[in-house]
């Protein structure tokens, strides 16, 4: 009995978060017979095949979503395709995306991923790292939401130059305005999702001005406006150590851009790796859904072995953002059953199943669940 209720609880936690949406935000409207149009950017590596799987699932389940696909990948160095992609994202207000490789050896190649998030002002990146019962991991019972500032901390945007030969200067630039909006987003998210504690991750002991401002803004806001949410601050080194030794202590982690990137990858690793976790990117106008760790999985492309879970959870997040809650629950439950009840696992989490076997199983599960699934 106890294990049955634990399984039910875990199923409800799985893919259950909802991005906080401020009142008055203009959400994408359904058009033509209640259907939504979502921009699809397949990207590089496993992205294109994962998008085909998502389209197949949506078509089978009759989810009321049409996809407008725009090719944008690292082979195409033409800036026009980036502009087309941005226009499509602005027009539809919402996108689902595979990751685009960033070329290390090409000094002029600006990361398309960073550019899209920056130009659409998608300032909040949200990952939900939650343990899945049948996935073998060192720690159990993890349920952490990671919220990362997604647009500044300019050391992340590649603002750097060689002052004299052999001397490189990288600039980290932060603003009170952007710190305030990510801090506010985090507390509002905590309140809306019934979360109890926010941990702000920083390095204010060394970066006294930049990280000092981050910490001060978060701390002051917590005290003045959100006294019912527990607030704590943790230096990034300690946060990394605490995360790998006792991850269950964390509820929501609020982070500047670069620490957020690294800590998010650690947290994804703790619950089973890059194939499992989705990543939500939201701003005041647009939303973009992708995988949490943002790698391309190029070595796996075309082999039918990649784990599709992270991409499917991105599709669940997207359905929920569109207000299609019953469809989101149905897909989330079908995926959860494939991973736990049918215990179908790809190689990255110790199994030997093909990607397509998981997709077929998800479709079978959708076929046997009622259309109006019980709301979580
Ligand atoms: P990668 O794409 O080689 O992936 C890292 C590891 O995770 C590999 O062993 C891969 O096989 C595995 N993996 C990834 N997705 C998987 C899935 N769905 N199922 C099973 N295994 C999976 O990562 P790498 O080398 O870090 O990045 C490749 C490209 O992605 C680079 O161009 C990089 O710039 C870009 N990128 C990576 C980010 C990251 O967080 N790692 C962030 C932003 C960009």
From TrEMBL:
<dbReference type="GO" id="GO:0000287">
    <property type="term" value="F:magnesium ion binding"/>
</dbReference>
<keyword id="KW-0816">Tricarboxylic acid cycle</keyword>
<dbReference type="Pfam" id="PF00180">
    <property type="entry name" value="Iso_dh"/>
</dbReference>
<dbReference type="GO" id="GO:0005739">
    <property type="term" value="C:mitochondrion"/>
</dbReference>
<keyword id="KW-0809">Transit peptide</keyword>
<dbReference type="GO" id="GO:0006102">
    <property type="term" value="P:isocitrate metabolic process"/>
</dbReference>
<dbReference type="InterPro" id="IPR019818">
    <property type="entry name" value="IsoCit/isopropylmalate_DH_CS"/>
</dbReference>
<dbReference type="GO" id="GO:0006099">
    <property type="term" value="P:tricarboxylic acid cycle"/>
</dbReference>
<feature type="domain" description="Isopropylmalate dehydrogenase-like">
    <location>
        <begin position="37"/>
        <end position="362"/>
    </location>
</feature>
<dbReference type="InterPro" id="IPR024084">
    <property type="entry name" value="IsoPropMal-DH-like_dom"/>
</dbReference>
<comment type="similarity">
    <text>Belongs to the isocitrate and isopropylmalate dehydrogenases family.</text>
</comment>
<dbReference type="GO" id="GO:0051287">
    <property type="term" value="F:NAD binding"/>
</dbReference>
<keyword id="KW-0496">Mitochondrion</keyword>
<protein>
    <recommendedName>
        <fullName>Isocitrate dehydrogenase [NAD] subunit, mitochondrial</fullName>
    </recommendedName>
</protein>
<dbReference type="GO" id="GO:0016616">
    <property type="term" value="F:oxidoreductase activity, acting on the CH-OH group of donors, NAD or NADP as acceptor"/>
</dbReference>
<dbReference type="InterPro" id="IPR004434">
    <property type="entry name" value="Isocitrate_DH_NAD"/>
</dbReference>
């Amino acid at each position: 009995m106890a294990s049955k209720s634990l399984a039910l609880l875990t199923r409800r936690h799985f893919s259950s978060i909802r991005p906080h949406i401020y009142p008055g935000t203009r959400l994408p409207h359904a058009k033509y017979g209640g259907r939504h149009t979502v921009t699809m950017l397949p990207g590089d590596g496993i992205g294109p095949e994962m998008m085909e799987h998502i389209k197949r699932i949506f078509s089978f389940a009759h989810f009321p979503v049409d996809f407008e696909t725009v090719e944008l990948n690292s082979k195409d160095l033409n800036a026009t395709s980036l502009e087309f992609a941005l226009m499509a994202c602005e027009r539809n207000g919402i996108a689902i995306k595979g990751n685009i490789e960033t070329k290390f050896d090409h000094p002029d190649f600006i990361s398309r991923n960073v550019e899209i998030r920056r130009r659409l002002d998608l300032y909040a990146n949200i990952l939900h790292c939650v343990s899945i019962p049948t996935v073998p991991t060192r720690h159990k019972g993890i349920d952490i939401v990671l919220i990362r500032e997604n647009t500044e901390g300019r050391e992340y945007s590649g603002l750097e130059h060689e002052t004299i030969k052999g001397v490189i200067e990288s600039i980290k630039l932060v603003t009170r305005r952007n710190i305030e909006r990510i801090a506010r987003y985090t507390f509002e998210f905590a309140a809306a999702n019934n979360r109890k504690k926010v941990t702000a991750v920083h390095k204010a002991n060394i970066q006294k001005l930049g990280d000092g401002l981050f910490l001060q803004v978060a701390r002051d806001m917590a005290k003045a406006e959100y006294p019912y949410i527990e607030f704590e601050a943790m230096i990034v080194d300690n946060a990394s150590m605490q995360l790998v030794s006792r991850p269950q202590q964390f509820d929501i982690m609020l982070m500047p851009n670069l620490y957020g990137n690294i800590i998010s990858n650690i947290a994804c690793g703790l619950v089973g790796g890059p194939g499992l976790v989705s990543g939500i990117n939201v701003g005041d106008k647009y939303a973009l859904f992708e995988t949490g760790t943002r790698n391309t999985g190029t070595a796996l492309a075309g082999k039918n072995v990649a784990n599709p879970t992270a991409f499917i959870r991105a599709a669940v997040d997207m359905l929920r953002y569109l207000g299609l809650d019953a469809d989101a629950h149905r897909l989330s439950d079908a995926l959860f059953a494939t991973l736990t009840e049918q215990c179908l696992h790809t190689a990255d989490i110790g199994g030997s199943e093909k990607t397509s076997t998981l997709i077929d199983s998800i479709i079978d599960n959708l076929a046997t669940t009622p259309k109006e699934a019980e709301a979580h």
